[in-house]
EamA domain-containing membrane protein RarD
Amino acid sequence: MLKGIFLKTLSTLAFTAMALGVRAAAPTVPVAEIVFYRSLVALAVLLAWLAASGALSGAWRTTRPLGHLGRGLSGVAGMFCNFTALALLPLADATAYFYAYPIFVTLIAGLALRERVQASRWLAVAIGFVGVVVMLSEHLGFGAGFDGNMRYGAGVALIGALCAALSIVQTRRLAQLETTGAIVFYFTCSCVFFGALTLAAAPVFPALGSAYVAPDARAWIGLAGAGVAGGAAQILATSSYRYADASLLAAFDYLAMVWALLASLAIDGEAPSRAVLLGAAAIAAAGLLALRSSRKTPERA
């Protein structure tokens, strides 16, 4: 169990390192290009891990190609939104908004999938929603921190959290029939493909973003770091579930908020506002309440 917690904690650190790499490249490199290079480097890391673990030969075997496509589309959309938010918001703010995704997972499971959701989970959704509203208040013209770019970044971050929730729900479906190696492999390949496709189409469709930009030295370091850290984070998170229950490890996801706060203070000198801290605390409390509820609810056959 302790090994699983340790690996999960390392994965949250790696995801924070990935976010820092994205922020280093974001000022000069289009989001689609960041998605492409981050995913390409992560794919190399993943293939090396699969080869070392003897699982490379079975990584592309699947009986659910459309399921992987659906997961890839939602996951790539979430990545685009997350990276855009990282370019527009302080690291701690963007991380806090992203971790609203458990709220959306509960809503999707209860409304779209018609899963039975206990009252305590709906309470968790309500608390989490209040937390999001508190964080949004300063970006919607109600507080002194009102700013157009930050308002846009907050909205994009929440859309990214919704896309991440859709991806998680689809991953749950795939996990019933597919191996972990195949799920991660096809997702990473989807990110490479759609990142390259968006980047290639940008000159024809400017709404998709800027065309290719030759990265400078700082951007290359950020892109490489984001790819290595992102690939390592996926491997560490996947490996952690071999040693501890998913319900236990889910609580440690919120450590990412702590690392993001510390990184913002140490590197950017940015301290989150009181509204963001209060909202993030409410979201974390909501997630832990939902976790406690899920551990008390027996699985249905």
Observations:
- The CA atoms of residues 80 and 102 lie 19 Å apart.
- Confidence is low (pLDDT under 50) at residues 141-146, 297-301.
